[in-house]
Each structure stands twice: as structure tokens, then as C-alpha cells.
Queue: 2 jobs
Job 1
Amino acid sequence: MKKILPLLVFLVVGVFLFLSLNSDPNKLPSPLVGKKFPIIEGTDFYSNETVKLNDLMDNNLALVNVWASWCVTCRKEHQVIMNVAKNTNLKLIGINYKDTKSDGMEYLKVMGNPFDEIVFDPNGEIGMELGVYATPETFLISGEGLIIHKHIGEITKEIWNENFLPLINVSES
């Protein structure tokens, strides 16, 4: 029994490690989905005035994208976000996360600015309230202020078409 017990423990630990390697962090459930977007105050990126994110949505279907200039994946998804801005009536709100204002401005100057509003979150406090642990993260918010979808990681054209568009079409009808 003394020789079998360590083997069993090793096998159990091995199975858990193997299963965790095959897990997809993009499919982690968010406790915020289906709930009201939290009432969060932040600083407007350009004017430095205090704003409430909820007020920025204006009771419209909105996309809240958490991004940073230092985020390689944000750069990869940026063209998709630009296309969303061009081709939808969504209110696009950006949260510039754990960044410097000068780096964020340079990023937008080079990459283009798809956002209707941007909130500056240099210390990650807003991100913490939203449960953000990696950039980019994107929230789809209904006109009633409910979080109807959260996506962790890059939004590709395929992800947009498969995960976001059906929810937008249902919400708009």
C-alpha cells in the first residue's frame, strides 16, 4: 500500500495537469454576464474629466474594449475593432488599461481611433472592477445596460461573426 499510494497521487495530479493544458481561458465563464454593467467612474482619456462608464453608453448597444498600447494582441485585433466601428451602430467605448497617456495617444495616432469614448485606467482599477486579467477583453452591453457577452483575447473576424453578431442581431430585433 505504501508503494501504491504515491503512484495513485501522481496519476491523479497528472490527470489534472493534463486536463488543464487543454482548457481554453477564453471560455472561462464571467460572473458579470447577465448582470448590469457595474457603475464605474473613470477619467476621460482626452479631457481628464470624471465620467461614468454607464452614462457613456447612452442606453445604446455598446462594445467596451479593454486595450493597451503595450499589448501585442490588442494590436492584432485593432483592425477588426476599426471595422466594427465603421460597419455597426454600436457605441464603442475603449478602456486604456495600465498604460501611459502618451503611449496610448501614439498608439491611436498610428493605428487609428475606433472609439466613440475612451476612459483612462492607468492603475488598472476599472479593469479590476470588471474582472479583467488580460488584455484585450471585450464586453458586449445591451441597451438596458446588461452584459450579454464577454470575450477574453483577440477578436478575429471569425470570432466576431460567430460570437458577437448573433447576439447583436438578437438585441437589435
Note: The longest strand covers residues 91-97.
Job 2
Amino acid sequence: MSTVYVTRKVHFNAAHRLHNPEKSDEWNREMFGPCNHPNWHGHNYELKVTVAGEPDPETGYVIDLGNLKALLNEEVVDKVDHKNLNLDVDFLDGVIPSTENFAIAIWNQLEGKLPSGRLHCVRLYETERNYVEYYGDGSERK
């Protein structure tokens, strides 16, 4: 059988502030610019999660998309939508919520929880023009 890649897309809105508490306020302002605004700023995020695997011979599915949708809502969307990523999201506690770190944290939220297939890629759009892809530790894009 061949490997097939199945992707589900979800949307959510969240606020954050890029700020390294180990550095001075001046360093943070210079490094992060407007993203360091002390009263936060927000994004309309788009998340695409890709699952890889061989289609099940009985269903033809790599993963039931209804199950993937429910998992994404439970593990990610319900926890971050209309939240402050710095203050309200337990799986980002102590993490600078850059898009890069956020994508890794989402991967960690999902890893090992798929009912079938294997997690292949987390693609997180912060804007229409800026996105991050994460393939897990040590994995490469194929």
C-alpha cells in the first residue's frame, strides 16, 4: 500500500505578546517591535494538521475526518480560541508564544492521541502570508 496524507483545517482567534522575561524591556522592544506591545495583539490563526498512513482496507480511511476534527477541537481549538496565549493556555505556560513555539506545542498536544495514522505535519498560519510548518523532532519534509 501507499502512504496517503490527510489534512484537516481549523480556525481560531487568539491574542499574545512576544516577550522574553529574561531580557530587558528595551531588548524586547527592539527584538519584537509591535509584537511586544504590553497590552497584547491578536491574530486570526489557521491551523492545518496532516496525518499520514495507509488507508484502512475496511473503510478506505487513513483517519476518520470527524474523529480528527473532534480531536483538534478538544486538544487545541477549545483551549486557545479567544484566549490570551500568554496567560490562558496551560500547554503554553512559560513558553514565548511565537508561531514557531506555538506549532511545536500544538504538535505535542496531538502526538500520541490520533486514533489511526501518524502525525505528519502541523502548519500554523499567523497571517495569510506568514506560517510555520513543524514535522516533529528529527523528521524531515518529504
Note: The radius of gyration is 17 Å.
